[in-house]
Amino acid sequence: MARLKHLPQWKVKSGPKEEGGVGLFTYPILQAADILLYKATHVPIGVDQVQHLQLAQDLATTFNYHYGQYFPQPTAILGETKKVQSLRKPDSKMSKSEADPRSRIDLTDSPEVIREKLKKAVTDSTSAVTYDPDTRPGVSNLVRIHSACTGLSCEEICRQNEGIETAKYKFVVADAVVAKLDPIRTEILRLQNDRSFLDSVLRQGARKARDIAEKTYSDVKKLVGFS
Fold first, then answer.
1. Residue 77, SS3 per DSSP
2. What's the pLDDT score for residue 81?
3. Is 221 a catalytic residue?
4. End-to-end CA, the chain
């Protein structure tokens, strides 16, 4: 219980008074169960989920110690850009659950919507393009997004955009984001129109997931002496 109260999901979303439902409190346990049930070896996560994955790793280690080597040790897959901040509140992470849609870039956003969102992204009164997350979180977030979309380092981006005002730089970032995401958006829209294909993928995935889960559940019951 004490450990769960110190994990990011609860600390961030429960607020200073630590108020929240049991679903929020037990989220890391359910996440660990999903990872272990399917015996995942690699898990793609953001940096804010590292402690949650560590819980799954510790549970796997504890189980293996008591009942024999069974669960693999899940390893984190972290991208170069480990965290992207909100466009409206750059001190908070970008999230699809944020009420304001202008705070995030969705994969299905049109180029026009992406440009409008980045145009209105919160920065500061200094016009230069620099990377300093501590004192200039808004502009630094744009540089980080630009880096993720182009593969350029934050330092290279700042050098290339030296002398450009922040307002104009937003359009540079928008062009990079559109170039990166537009092919993905096009493919998503194509797949959304192919319902029969999506249904078949869902059926195959559900069948495969069910087979793995049933075997893991049966194995664990035998190992702990429940059957």
1. strand
2. 82
3. no
4. 29
pLDDT-derived band at 163, boundaries 50, 70, 90: very high
State CA 39 to chain mean position distance.
Answer: 21
- Find residue 199's DSSP bridge partners: none
Q: Two tokens at 75?
A: 């390893």
Please give the structure tokens belonging to residue 224: 């702990």
Question: Of 5, 13, 221, 222, which is the active-site residue?
Answer: 13
Q: Report the distance separating Cα 75 and Cα 24, nearest Å.
A: 24
Q: Which residues lie below 8 Å from residue 91, measured CB to CB, with a gap of 6+?
A: 85, 137
pLDDT surpassing 90 at residue 7: no
Q: Active-site residue among 83, 96, 119, 208?
A: 96
Instruction: Spot the catalytic one: 17, 82, 93, 120.
Output: 93
User: CA-CA distances (angstroms) from residue 50 to 27, 43, 47, 98, 145?
Assistant: 14, 10, 5, 21, 21
Instruction: Let me know if 96 is a catalytic residue.
Output: yes
Catalytic site includes residue 168: no
Cα atoms found within 13 Å of the Cα of residue 56, Cβ hemisphere only: 28
Q: Is the dihedral of CA 47, 52, 58, 63 positive or negative?
A: negative
pLDDT in tens, 61-118: 999 999 999 999 999 998 888 789 999 999 998 988 889 999 999 999 999 999 999 9
